[in-house]
Amino acid sequence: xxxxxxxxxxxxxxxxxxxxxxxxxxxxxxxxxxxxxxxxxxxxxxxxxxxxxxxxxxxxxxxxxxxxxxxxxxxxxxxxxxxxxxxxxxxxxxxxxxxxxxxxxxxxxxxxxxxxxxxxxxxxxxxxxxxxxxxxxxxxxxxxxxxxxxxxxxxxxxxxxxxxxxxxxxxxxxxxxxxxxxxxxxxxxxxxxxxxxxxxxxxxxxxxxxxxxxxxxxxxxxxxxxxxxxxxxxxxxxxxxxxxxxxxxxxxxxxxxxxxxxxxxxxxxxxxxxxxxxxxxxxxxxxxxxxxxxxxxxxxxxxxxxxxxxxxxxxxxxxxxxxxxxxxxxxxxxxxxxxxxxxxxxxxxxxxxxxxxxxxxxxxxxxxxxxxxxxxxxxxxxxxxxxxxxxxxxxxxxxxxxxxxxxxxxxxxxxxxxxxxxxxxxxxxxxxxxxxxxxxxxxxxxxxxxxxxxxxxxxxxxxxxxxxxxxxxxxxxxxxxxxxxxxxxxxxxxxxxxxxxxxxxxxxxxxxxx
Length: 514
Hints:
Blueprint: H1 2-17, E1 21-23, E2 35-37, H2 39-58, E3 63-65, H3 75-79, H4 82-85, E4 87-92, E5 99-101, H5 102-128, H6 134-140, H7 142-164, H8 167-176, E6 193-196, E7 200-203, E8 211-214, H9 220-224, H10 227-233, E9 240-249, E10 264-274, H11 279-295, E11 304-308, E12 318-326, E13 329-340, H12 342-351, E14 357-359, E15 364-366, E16 369-376, H13 377-388, E17 389-393, E18 399-403, E19 414-418, H14 425-436, E20 442-444, H15 450-460, E21 464-468, H16 470-475, E22 477-482, E23 488-492, H17 496-504, H18 506-510
Parallel strand pairs: 3-9, 19-20, 19-21
Antiparallel strand pairs: 1-2, 4-5, 4-6, 7-8, 9-10, 10-16, 11-12, 12-13, 13-16, 14-15, 17-18, 21-22, 22-23
Helix pairs in contact: 2-13, 5-7, 5-8, 7-8
C-alpha cells in the first residue's frame, strides 16, 4: 500500500511539474476535486479524445456525432430517473469525521478478497507450470473458492440492500465485515443515507421568474432527446449509433484520487440503437470492441479486466465495467450497458412525443433498445499518464524519469535541438520546426546541455528528439533519438516527416484493433 501511495504521489507531482495538470484556482488555495489541464495536459486530453472519436465515429459508417447542450429542460432529469434515483449511499465515521461511499467501502473489501485469491492462483501457477489448470484449481481449492464465494455473497447482499432501500442492512454489512475507516482504523460509523448528486442552478433574468435547472450529470440524455432528429435528418437505419464527448457535473461528496473522481469531468459516450431482442448480441460486440480499443494503446493486457455488475442500474438488463489497474488498484475505466428501451420510453411518457423507429423491412414502428459505451476522458487520461510514468535504471547506474506515453497520444511528437546556440545551428533547427509543424506538434529547445535536454523531453513524454549538429550543415542529416530505447540514428532531414508519421499515425495504432 505504501508503494502504491508513493507511486500515486509521483504521478500527481509529475503532472504539475511538467505542465499537465494544475489544481484549479491555486492562488486562492484551490477548489476541492477541481483541476485545470495545463499546456501539455490539454494536448494529451485532446489526442485521447481524437483517438476515441476517430475509432468510434470516423471508422463506423453507422455512427454519427452530436454536441448537445449542458443545460437541458428540467423534465429531462425527471424522465431519466436522476431526480429520484441519482444517489450515492454515504456513511460518516464519527471519530475521524470523514465521509465515505458505503458501496465503495464494501467493494474495496471485496477487492482484497479477490486479490488474496489471485495470490493463491499465482503461487499454484508457479508451482505446477504448464500443467496448471486454473479453472479446476479455483473450483477445488477450498481457500480460493472460499474467498471468491464470500466476495460474491457480499456483493449480492449489498446490491439487494441498495435496490430495496434497506440502508440499515448495508450498514449492518459494514459492521459485520468489521470494515474500518481507511485513514484512521475507526469502526464507529453513522447510519447510511442517500445523497443526490446533481448540481442545481437557475435560468432567468430575475430570481422571481427563474427556472430551476440542473447541470447535466451525464451526456447520454442529450443523445436520447435528439434520437429522432438525428435518425430522420441522417436517414439512419437500425442499428446505428450517436456519439458525443462533453462535460458533465456531479456533486461528489467523496471526491478523491486526483482526477479519478471529480465534480466537473468529461465523458466520451456512444448510444447504439438496436432492434429489440438483438441487444445482447450488440452488448457482447461492444464489450469486446471497446477492450480492443484500450489494448491498441499497448499498455499491457494484464492491466485490464471485465467486472460484470451484480447490482444493475434501474434502466439496465446487463452491465459490465472495463477496469484498469490504476496506482490505487483496479477501478472502473469504461462502462458498457444494455439500457433496454427505458430512456426513449421514459422521454415518450414525459414529453408526449413519439420516439419510435419505423422499420421498413418489418413494416412496423417500435422503440429501439440501446447499448451504451461510456468512458471517462479524465480517467482515461489518468490511466495513460500513470502507467506511462516510469523510473528507469540505466546501464551506467544512473536513473532517468521517462513518461512512456503511447506516441500517438503524446502532446509533443518531436523536440528539435540545436547542439549549440551558434554557428548557424539554431537557424537550421528552426527551419525544421517550421517544416514539421504543419503535420505535428513539435517543440524547439536550446537551453542547457543536450543530455539534460534529452532528460527533460523524456520526462515530458516526447517520443523523438532531433539534434542538429555541425554535420547537418555539411550533409543535411540529423540525429534522431527514440525516447523509449534511447537509440540514435542518423537520417536525412527529408526523411523526418515520414519517420515520425510512421510512429505516431492514428491509422497505424488503430489498425491493431483488427
